[in-house]
Write a structure and sequence with these properties.
This protein is α+β, with helices and mostly antiparallel strands. The protein contains 3 helices and 15 strands.
């Protein structure tokens, strides 16, 4: 093991303001964890219903529509209403990063055959956004998928099945770039049914002018 220290203290349970979330470590370095029942069934439903009329074709980080990413998605405005604010605050507390560092909460929808091929969430060194790079990701599964739609880390031989209300966390802020590179991941094609997820990315420095610091 290296001397790297994770952003998230590793625990079996995380006590948040309004719930306790059970956690399982899937990989140590880079740290990848699964959380159970982060959102209730009703919260998942509310996010889907709020996002559905606002979906647009997903784009890559360079703002280009590509066959690499064939889902549809949208972003909520930062703290755009009390419900979104409550979810963002819970996520911030769990990820152990102040909400000022959070991008807007994104919702993605995948129909059968849609996918997001292998990619990194952090920005490459030639990207202007790398000056304030992403450091961690939380993917919340908003529904059960009949078949397909798993999140796969091909370099780690790791596969995570979507289950409603559960979440997948991973981080990539390490000094050792090879650890960051191991977070290469994909959303494999949905075979039957549909897939809804909420994604939160955290940045190294603040990106919001206003916000609450999680405690």
């Amino acid at each position: 093991m290296s001397k790297e220290i994770s952003i998230l203290p590793i625990q079996s349970f995380y006590s948040l303001d309004d719930r306790t979330v059970a956690a399982t470590v899937l990989h140590q370095e880079p740290l990848i964890m699964r959380f159970e029942r982060l959102l209730t069934d009703d919260e998942c439903r509310q996010l889907i219903e709020a996002a559905a009329p606002r979906l647009r074709d997903s784009k890559l980080v360079n703002n280009v529509v590509s066959e690499i990413r064939t889902s549809r998605g949208m972003f909520f405005e930062e703290e755009e209403n009390p419900f979104i604010h409550r979810i963002e605050k819970r996520i911030s507390a769990l990820m152990n990063v102040p909400i000022e560092h959070a991008e807007g909460l994104q919702i993605l929808h995948y129909s059968p055959g849609q996918e997001y091929q292998a990619h990194y969430d952090f920005f490459g060194p030639n990207s202007p956004s790398a000056e304030n790079n992403r450091i961690s990701t939380l993917i919340i599964y908003l529904n059960d998928v009949e078949a397909g739609g798993e999140t796969v880390f091909p370099l780690l031989d790791l596969e995570v099945k979507p289950e409603r209300g559960s979440a997948l966390y991973f981080e990539y802020f390490y000094r050792q770039q090879e650890l960051n590179n191991l977070t290469l991941h994909s959303s494999v094609p949905v075979i039957r049914g549909e897939k809804w997820v909420a994604t939160q990315w955290m940045r190294r420095q603040r990106v919001r002018e206003y916000g609450l610091i999680s405690s």
